[in-house]
Amino acid sequence: MPINYYIYLSVILFCIGVAGVLTRRNAIIVFMCIELMLNAVNLLLVSFSKMHYAKAVLTDPNTTVGTDAQLFVFFIMVVAAAEVSVGLAIIVLMYRKVHSVDINFLNRLKN
Amino acid sequence: MNLIIFAAIAGVVMMIGGLFVKEKRTVSGLALVCMIALLLFNSLELCTSVPVFHIDLNGMLGFTNLGLLINEVLLLSGTIYFILQGRDIEKVGDNVPDYYALIFFVFCGVGIATSFQSLLMLFLGIEIISIPLYILTASDKLNMKSNEAGLKYFLMGAFSTGLMLMGIALVYGATGSFYLNDVVNSKAIPAAGVLPTAESLVDTYRLIGGLILLMISMSFKVSAAPFHFWTPDVYDGAPTPFTAFMATIVKVAAFIAFIKLFEGTHDKLMGKYQMLIAIIITATLLIGNITAVFQQSVKRMLAYSSIAQAGFMMFALFSFNAMAKEAIVLYAAAYCFATIGIFSILNRMDDYSFDGYNGLAKREPLLALLNTIFFLSLAGIPLTAGFFAKYYMVAAALENNAGFLWMFVIAMLCAAISVYYYFRVIQAMYFKTGDGQKIEASPVFRYVLVGVAILIIILGIQPGLLLQHLYF
Amino acid sequence: MNITQILFWFLSALAVGSALMVITRKNPVYSVLFLIITFFAISGHYILMNAQFLAIVNIIVYAGAIMVLFLFVLMLMNLNSDTEPQKNKYMIWSGAVAAGVLMLIIIASLHTDIKEPALNMGQGGIGLIKHLGVVLFRDYVIPFEISSVLFLSAMVGAVVIGKK
Amino acid sequence: MTNILQYAWLVPVFPLIGFLINGVFRNSLSKQVVGIIGSGSVMLSFIVSIWLFTGVKGAEPYVAHYFDFISVGKVAIPFAFQIDQLSAIFLLIITGVGTLIHIYSTAYMYVEEPKHFARYFAYLNLFIFSMLLLVMGANYIIMFIGWEGVGLCSYLLIGFWFQRTDYNNAAKKAFIMNRIGDLGVLLAVFWIMQKFQTVNFRELFDAVAAQHAAGTLNVNDPALVGITLLLFLGATGKSAQIPLYTWLPDAMAGPTPVSALIHAATMVTAGIYMIARSNIMFTLAETTSNIVAIIGLATAVLAATIALKQNDIKKVLAYSTVSQLGFMFLALGVGSYTGAVFHVMTHAFFKALMFLGAGSVIHGMHHEQDMRNYGGLKKYMPVTHATFLVGCLAISGVPLFSGFFSKDEILMGAYAHSPVLYFIGLAAALMTAFYMFRLYAMTFRGQFRGDAHHLPHESPVAMTAPLVILAILAAVAGFIGIPALFKPDAHILEKYLAPVFEGSAKLVKAHEIEHGTEWGLMIGSTAIILAVIAFAWNKFSKYQKTGAEETGFGKVLENKWYVDEIYNGIVVKPLLGLAAFFNSVIEKSGIDKLVNGVGRSVQYASRQFRYLQSGVIGNYILIMVAAIVVLFLLGFGFTPDFRAIRSLFGK
Amino acid sequence: MILVSLILIPLVFGLGSFFLKGTDSPKTFALIASILSLAASLYAISIPVGSLTYSHGWLGTFNSNFSLGADGLAKILILLTAVSYPIIFIATSRNQYKDTSQFYALMLLVQAGLMGVFLSTDCLLFYFFWELALIPAYFLCSKWGGDKRIQVSFKFFIYTFIGSLIMLIGIIYLYSKTSDHSFAWSSFSRVVLTDQEQKYFFWFFFIAFAIKMPIFPLHTWQPDTYEQAPTATTMVLSGVMVKMGLFAVARWLIPVFPQMAVKMADTVMILSIIGMIYASLIAMKQDSIKRMIAYSSIAHIGLMCAALFANNAAATQGVYIQLFNHGVNVIGLWIVANAIEQQTGTTKMSELGGLAYKAPVLAILLVVMALANIALPLTNAFVGEFLMFNGIFAYKPVFAAVAIISIVLAAVYTLNMIQKVFLGEASGFLKVTEIPKNTIIALSIIVLMIFAMGVYPNPMFHLGEQVMGWAMKK
User: Fold this and answer.
1) Contact residues on chain D for C101, CB-CB shorter than 8 A
2) Which residue(s) pair with E65 in the sheet?
3) The Cα angle at residue E251 between residues E245 and E254, in degrees rounded to 5
4) Which residues does chain B have within 8 Å of residue E161's beta carbon, measured at their own beta carbons?
5) Neighboring chains of C (3 or more beta-carbon pairs < 8 A)
6) Each residue of B343-352: pLDDT tens digit?
7) Under DSSP, is residue E57 helix (H, G, I), strand (E, B) or coil?
8) What is the pLDDT of residues B288-343, one digit of tens each?
9) Chains E and C touch (3+ CB pairs under 8 A)
10) Across the strands, what pairs with D83?
């Protein structure tokens, strides 16, 4: 498949994630949409990894080009997991206080 | 390297130490000892450029004088911060050792952010800085504002992480590597005078797209407009000692990361995109300064002021020359010292509004004087470090960018606006009538604060004392 | 249209479709479930590209662990249905438009007419566990160790936040 | 030169010393001492002046250079005195009349408290000092120092009784109107410096003459006309000519001796002195000369008409002064410089005499100045009456009195220039005779109309003695200027002054009037004047207070043609209005509002910007996304498909 | 070294003064300091220009030195600064301030800043001192001023600060354009700029100086500040500090942008002259003596600024001498205003009147001061104004003709003031007595100077001429 398709797909998913962040008010959903964005990036990285591999393999069949991107994706997942633990902890803390996860109610701090 | 390793170790020490030490003062003392140790280790590396442990870095990290010097400045600020605000950190909540541990982890991230050579390390560094901060922000669990700030910070920070990753992905797509050197030398950046081929143009687009996204996410981290929105809310909501920490050390570290990130590509590529930086600078200066004018709370004003100061620090990104590096070091020092000083006094006050400062000069003449010096430094008045910080920034940027004269004029007008809100505090302290709040201040606190003020004035007269370390 | 292409289009449609469902469902539980479907679709793409390790990790970590955590929290909060109050029309429209424009802009920025070599689907050993493992523990030991600091801080953080 | 002239500096130094002593020790000196110092210093000057007068001989003026006042680059202004015939005559007038008036003042001002008495004499001495500087200065700057100095003293003396607001106003008015004229002088000086690179009289006039001779400076050269016009502007201020004359009548607020000295005899003739001094430039600038003549004549007529209807004795004299000064300017304008100086001299005598006489009357009448309340004073104040009558005769131009000679010389000069000038001048002279004798008759003739309980009394000797001396002078001073008509070569004054006006004399085409015509004019005019005198004498000796308001034209005259009101309306009010407009509108609501507005707009912006910080994450991220879009657009160069990037990298 | 001591004496004494207690000791202390610095400056003035330099390395990295130097212009202004301080301290020694020691300390710090400004031959150093003079002044105005002091002095501060920041851009830019990358005056005056650059940076510099002077329409901070500031500070502000602007134009603007100074002369002069007339007219409408003096000062400064740009030696010399004379005169006027305020508690003309009865000495001294203010011959101001008008006339007669109107207006408002305050019926201030000795001494010194300089100004010209050789070298 042409790399462009993957780029488009990733961008579309990414922007759906952005749209979710923008439109939803439930903090958890917003957070999920951010995860969706990260996944879109992961997909893009993997496809770029394959793209570079595809280019490099033409000259060197044993090439390992593209490995780093896949490891990067791995690290993203690691970080995402850590982030989720912290994020959900904060959301739960919030919920315990106000019994709501509506981010629009988060407006004690403004101006 | 020393910083990264020992900061991580210090974090663990604090975690474990917390299990055994119940007395909060002792915890603070332990943290201070760790901090001084970090400072010494980093000084050692700065002087000898040999780390304690030899680790094969695989090109992921690279240590330069700039990074180490900034580390030094930040660690010094950190030491001062611990001395001056240890008491206040103890008051935030019950998990004091954990707070210190998180702060040390942040320092670990700071070490990475000032030395990364690979986008992967950038990502990890920024995340190691961010995640503890989310927690520190939300750490005052009884305070709704703190919780709210934590959640806001977290959601927006995660969003910007997404943007950053998208940028990194695009850069990778263009260059096939995460290493800064490879990015700079990749074919995606057409060499001067060489006509780009159609293929390389595709990569160029991706690179530019990626860099713009990176720029945006880093702007977010340094709270440059219009990506600054988290800053006032978070700084306002977070427990004050942690606000001080975020506003100074973390922000400067993010700046260094920002600068390192674009250092290489600037000459070849982003140099042509100075307009973008100029727009961000202008927006940051205007929004930061103007919004700060109407604030009622000093703490929140300082948040906007930190945005405004970020605008000035962005000049280093605009110019990218040898002087810009000097400028950022000096600015980091001036800004950190002054802001930590201000926050240290603010911490001890009950009323954070401007009126809370009324008549302080009568009650605490020394503290008022010191506070004045700090504010003057932030405002960039000569004889304080802040003047030379701004001076270097502008001089570096002006050196070969006369076309952006309008930006400098705006910057200077904004500097004048900044005087407006900084001086409101001075006015309150000296000229308004009031009883002045009682401020608990131990002699050590005072001496250290005086030391900071002297440091600021020395740097304001002879900035070379600090800057010479950049070169040998 | 060979099988790869068919799978590609199917998985893409699935991913986009379920992603849209994620952001449009009112009930957060549905959102979580659709997100899991999206993740599965993405894992499918990984497999198409012969990135088997990531495909598995994606399912285990994301779909398996993270999303379950989400679901768990949702259940804990009893946010199963209609807890999201009246939506703000302006917010939805402006959000959708902004995201749409962003998408157009990014795509337009990256769009070219150049025919680049197609990805060789299902080939290449770089995505295999064996290879990745070697590289991870040889070249990427520094970030690997550093991510431990990240986890430590996350752990400490969770404790700080979670402790009563 | 002779040794005598080297002591010229003594002349101004005596009054200066007097000023300093009286000024510094005013609280401790007794009135007698003050009077002696004040009068004595001027008398010493007078003595030196006489000495100088006799010492001035020949064509070359004596210039004494003391030190460099200003010397910067090309500007070199020495502090130097110039003694020649013109200044010698003025010195005599100033110190001579000055001495008399000082003596007179010791009696007139005796009622004042000692410190005010001393203050008065200090001012008076300072005035003499300034006036001497004015006439002795060897360049325009020193002259200007004196010029401003006399203005200042005039201000101080008019406002001597400073508790009276209207007096202060009068003083202020005098000073400011003089200042307007001074601007002219200053500008003229600048122009002179630019054009001739010197302000020293000798070098300047030599340069003018030389340039004219060399053909580089034509008659009516624009620069010259400009310079002379500006100088004349100065003269109109100082010498109370149209349009700046209105201060002089108001200046009568000062003590009467002051009016006599400053506002009749000396200061107001400074303008004439200046023009006479600069005669060569005025001669070459014919346009200006014509303007001077016309303005002089117009002033003479206008002031005379006003004087016809005034009831305040000092006001009549004041307008009379303005009118007489107009005559002098007429003389200057028609090139009869000697005539002008002659009239200055005779006028100094008879006008000082009349002012002092009026002062005596006022003194005797317990500070009543309204003539309608006088009448029949001849009986009570015989000396005053007699001397005053001499003055009136002199000013009216009754033959053999001094005024006759000087006025005749002026009118003849005017006739030679243009008969129209002559006849208008004659009309003014007739009016002079009328109002002077109206004054005389109303004051001294008829029945006493004042308060019978406060009968007037004759003044002390200190006051009458100067009157007598002045009366003698007023009667006989004319004989130094006997016209050629009576006896050729008998005009002593003309011969004496000849070196000063030598340059001009060469340039002026001598209009000789036939002797027959001259006799005719002289006899005719004298006859009419005598008739007018008789009419006025007759009419106003029977004057009775009616209390009726003047109507019609009389009212216009009584109100001085409403000139003050007109000035008020077209200059003062608009200026104050403009000032108020600037103050309240431009300054406060304009510039300051603008400046504060900048600050306020920042605050306003601040308040608005705060709303961006809505506290809602969705909005924050929305703005961020929008910013991303914008940055992408900018980064890729705005075109829909970003083709611009190609040109960026593809050369 | 003597130059350094000129800065150091007030600086050290100023800092020392912070530690004094009581009310009398700081006054004495400050007076001693000011007399010391007067002595030092008299000594400095007697030294020929050539050997009056001092340089010490400062910021090696960008070639900025702590270099001082005095030419005639600087000498005149040093003398002014040094002379005015003792006079001010004597004249206001009866004024009571809370925290006396701080007040005098700040006053001395201002003096140090002023000295530094006048002596610096390094542009960065100049900027440093420029600001350093401002900050203590700000504190003085804000802490010890009138009711509206906080807003007013803040406006003053921000206004001048904006100007100096814009100038800073210019300084930095010019620095980068100097051939030897140096801030030295000599390098700046040799800098080569394009027309476009000249145009921009001329205005960048000029705005800063114009605000300081102030020139219409940037003057609005001034009357408020003068009115609200404590009188001693006002004296420094109007007597000495505004001279910084003119000094800077003469030292840092015209020599650095010679062509632009010629090209822009018309614009600047027109602004200045409008300002003169405008300020004079407004002065006529003021009720407060202080505001009147303030506006009068604007008019006078406008004249000096216009004359500086007239580009001829006479006018320049006129300005130099007038710098001193105006300083002396305006300080005298403020002393009178202060005396009136101390005696009656008000400076509103409408509330005053007839003071000449109660305080004849004051009245006489005021009249002398007023006469100097309207530049009557034989007072010092005449010499300067004469030369300046002369210079302007030589440049463009029309300008002189318009500008000179201000002399008449000056007479109007000055005489008005005299009349309303001193003349007329004595108003209700029965308690008013003759002014105290200290005021009389101070005013007498000023009056003596007024006449001395008015009759024999040549010594000052000789001082000023030392500028000519030095500054016209290029």
Assistant:
1) 629
2) E57
3) 95
4) 416, 419
5) A, B, D
6) 999 988 888 8
7) strand
8) 999 998 888 999 999 999 999 999 998 888 888 888 888 899 999 999 999 999 99
9) no
10) D62
